Amino acid sequence: MSVSLLEIVVLPNGDIALQRANEKDEPLISISFSEEVQEFLLDAKMDMAKVMIDAGVELFEQLGSDSMQMEEDSLEVGSSPRILH
Fold first, then answer.
1. Tens digits of residue pLDDT in 30-76
2. Does 85 reside within a domain?
3. Number of domains present in the structure of the chain
4. Looking at the domain assignment, is residue 34 inside a domain?
5. Which domain holds residue 34?
6. Is 80 inside any structural domain?
7. Three-state SS sequence of the chain
8. Stated pTM of the model
9. 6 vs 34: CA distance, rounded Å
């Protein structure tokens, strides 16, 4: 599995995005705040986006490890696969 460096950037339209470093592909994640929220956050907009992205990455990693555990469990004799909802 290759390792990619990720970066958080501000897009020209003001949205905040997570993308692969040094690539101009479509962002992996983009966050758009309403005007009302931007006025409330003021200079904390980037901090809020970082927390949201961090939580998403953490969940993504957890889902990946849960998926690997499901594969291991399904190899055991007599086990039924778990369904994640």
1. 999 999 999 999 899 999 999 999 999 899 888 887 666 656 655 55
2. no
3. 1
4. yes
5. 6-75
6. no
7. CCCCCEEEEECCCCCEEEEECCCCCCCCEEECCCHHHHHHHHHHHHHHHHHHHHHHHHHHHHHHHHHHHHHHHHHCCCCCCCCCC
8. 0.66
9. 25
